[in-house]
TrEMBL record:
Belongs to the paxM FAD-dependent monooxygenase family. It holds the Pfam family FAD_binding_3. The chain crosses the membrane at residues 6-25. GO terms for molecular function: FAD binding; monooxygenase activity. This is FAD/NAD(P)-binding domain-containing protein. PANTHER family: FAD-BINDING DOMAIN-CONTAINING PROTEIN, MONOOXYGENASE. The keyword Membrane applies. InterPro entries: FAD-bd, FAD-dep_Monooxygenase_BioMet, FAD/NAD-bd_sf. The lineage of its organism: Eukaryota, Fungi, Dikarya, Basidiomycota, Agaricomycotina.
Length: 419
């Protein structure tokens, strides 16, 4: 007899989105098992923007926001590469407008909190089980099973491929491999402890000058790089996290390398960084001169896929719709996927209705997440669209004012034929 009390769910990937999916489904009483290829020994230290729509989802899933030790982003202050002052956006109305502030957190703190919510004894539903060092190598969408590197096979009522931009599950859902094209965009990324800035009064503007918020340092839009005819897109984004004790720096730029022939993520020296920004004002170079453990990241976006679902298997997060970080919405879109799926697959769902529910999931999520991915690319590359997200109240309202839980409940009622 079919078990309708709780489903057996497999999540492939224990990144931010994989854990979020586990939380969302355990809260509905489902039994969740997560398989993760890594051992979590070297987690990525970096900051992450949590805009209001993302924070709304975290709260809906029962996140204890205090555990994230967040810093509120009250404004974006733009500055010229020569030290000149630019515009300042005011984010102080976000709480009134969207019911949530815009926060900035450390990724490791967020990952730990989602892990606690997924695996911990507290919270609703049965705790999920996590297997580390467990690479999934294939998925049979016909019988809803996965095979691990050691040959072990596991079957489930629902499989979620939350295995990131280089997803394994994606090709089994689509029935073909799809290339993730180079984006001509990359970013130097590192963290600096705020105490390291203290001996340098010329850096007081980063943490000591009100209002608190992100600082954005741009090369002149009209400038052309010496090495090519490309527009100079170099932009340094700086913000605090972990209660302001850590400063996150991301220096995005046009990547003139052949991106297919270099690593997606590689360490670089401080000297390389300083040389890259050698024409910047000395006060910015002072900050770059304090950088340690700098990595150069290629940034790529997943092109629109023909589908995200196949029978009882679905894609979620970066596996389905990785975007460039231009809108700070990559994780937010994956988190919205997780909240939506929890609403559409509630307690008591029978496994035979999962394929129909996954189609509803795709209908609800695909257009919105692919819009964000496309905008993240265009607002990085098209001069006329640069900064549009922050300039356009309509766009901000669409992205940050969205309530995925309400939308998913509306879709669920349609599915069940209720008003
Ligand atoms: C520079 C940069 C800045 C960003 N800033 C922001 C921001 O400010 N705000 C925001 O919302 N988003 C931001 N993002 C995007 C955000 O980081 C991603 O969208 C998010 O982390 C994706 O999470 P994920 O769980 O889908 O994928 P991942 O984090 O890639 O996790 C996938 C997991 O699956 C595992 N895995 C992969 N293959 C297998 C397999 N075969 N078997 C088992 N496990 C497997 C991996 O080891 C990994 O742990 C940024 C991205 C970049 C690159």
């Amino acid at each position: 007899m079919e078990n309708v009390s709780s489903l057996n769910v497999i999540v492939v990937g224990a990144g931010l989105v994989g854990f979020a999916a586990a939380v969302s489904l355990r809260r509905q009483g489902h039994r969740v098992t997560i398989y993760e290829t890594s051992s979590f020994k070297s987690e990525l230290g970096a900051g992450l923007a949590i805009p209001p729509n993302t924070l709304r989802c975290l709260r809906d899933l029962g996140c204890n926001v205090a555990n994230l030790d967040p810093v509120e982003n009250l404004c974006f202050t733009s500055m010229g590469y020569d030290g000149s002052q630019g515009m300042q956006s005011d984010n102080t109305d976000y709480e009134a407008r969207y019911g949530m502030p815009w926060l900035m957190v450390h990724r490791v703190d967020l990952h730990n909190e989602l892990k606690r919510m997924a695996l911990g004894d507290g919270g609703e539903g049965p705790p999920a089980t996590l297997y580390l060092n467990s690479r999934v190598i294939s998925c049979d969408v016909g019988v809803c099973s996965i095979t691990m590197e050691d040959g072990t096979m596991r079957a489930a009522d629902l499989i979620i491929g939350a295995d990131g931009i280089r997803s394994t599950i994606r090709s089994f859902v689509l029935g073909e491999e799809i290339p993730i094209p180079p984006s001509r965009t990359a970013g130097f990324r590192w963290l600096t402890h705020a105490v390291a800035l203290e001996p340098h009064p010329e850096l007081d503007w980063i943490v000591k000058t009100a209002p608190r918020g992100a600082r954005v340092i741009s090369a002149p839009v009209s400038a052309v790089t010496a090495a090519s005819n490309a527009i100079d897109h170099r932009t340094i984004i700086i913000y605090g996290c972990r209660g302001g004790s850590v400063i996150n720096v991301l220096a995005v730029h046009e990547d003139l390398r052949d991106q297919d022939s270099v690593a997606w993520n590689a360490p670089v020296t401080r000297e390389t960084l300083l040389e890259f920004f050698s024409d910047y004002h000395p006060r910015f170079k002072r900050l770059l001169g304090l950088a340690d453990d700098v990595h150069l990241w290629q940034m790529r976006a997943v092109p629109p896929l023909k589908t995200w679902v196949n029978n009882n298997v679905c894609l979620m997060g970066d596996a389905a719709h990785a975007s460039l970080p231009t809108l700070g919405q990559g994780f937010g879109m994956g988190l919205e996927d997780a909240v939506a799926l929890g609403v559409l697959i509630p307690r008591g769902t029978s496994s035979s209705t999962v394929p129909t529910r996954l189609i509803a999931y795709e209908t609800l999520r695909k257009q919105r997440a692919e819009f964000v991915a496309a905008e993240s690319f265009e607002q990085q590359h098209l001069p006329a669209k640069r900064g549009l997200y922050l300039r356009s109240i309509q766009m901000r309202d669409e992205v940050m004012g969205y309530n995925v839980k309400d939308e998913a409940q509306r879709v669920l009622c349609q599915l069940l034929g209720r008003k």
